[in-house]
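B., you asked whether I could sanity-check this one before it goes into the benchmark set. Here's the sequence:
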Amino acid sequence: MRIDIDSFQLLQVLVEEGSFAKAAERLHKAQSAISYQIKKLEQHLGVSLFSREGYRAELTAEGKVIMAEGQKLLQHMANIEHLAQRFSQGWEPKLELVIDGALPMEPILSALKRMAELNLPTKIQLKVEFLTGVQYRFEQDKADIMLVKDYLAGPSYHQQALPEITCMLVAAPSHPLAQMQQIRLDQMQQYVELTIQDSAPEPSYQDEMQFHGEKVFYLSGFSMKKSALLMGLGYGWMPDFVIPNEIAAGTLQKIDFIGGNLSRFIPQLVSNLERPLGKAGQLFTEIIMDEFEKMQHLSAELG
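And here's what the prediction gave me:
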């Protein structure tokens, strides 16, 4: 007997359903046929895969190890089928994007509008995350593209630089820090710092821009953070594209911190070469790069 993909698919169904009867019902086969196939597989491997003592179909210790290897094979087969489907159809059925909330949404939404106007068969899914949550979601969901501020590079990652983003260290005029000059770090740490919550389940990234005082409020996005800044709750970094009106009107102002009140970063558009982009992914990459270049040129003209 040769072990094939069907054998591991059967094992997977048995584990998911928990009984031979339910597995047979799901597969539209006789229960005796299911039992016979598993018995033949066990005889071929020379190990017992399932315990026959209880009511449920539970894997033995050996069965769990073999099933774990089988699941890797099933995943590899799914990846091959996914790639074949993409290449045979031309347009991939779905394009998954993960966006860092620290990036401007206007060029991203403009790119999505242009994609929608082309009436493509590809379904586009966009998720917004923060800090290490961006890369976590990109890998966890096996997404196609991430637009990210910071990430851990890998040999299979392909990145393209987006235009530079400037952040300002700001507070409301009524805040004590806004009325001080040449502020030291220890003075900053006496007040509430407003920052963005890392959206990863187990954050491992230490934001180098934080001031690490005892009073830190973690917020779920820049809209909430801007509201908190405007009411004088604390101070913090904000992307300049989020607060141009507030800076112009004076409702928010830069803090005179001796370490500087401007910070810049170059975001990246990243894909994974192990998950090659289809036609829609390649097209979106071209369009989004174009939209960010337009934003950069417009900013240069206005600035």
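One thing to flag: Residues 111 and 288 are 5 Å apart (CA to CA). Otherwise nothing jumped out at me.
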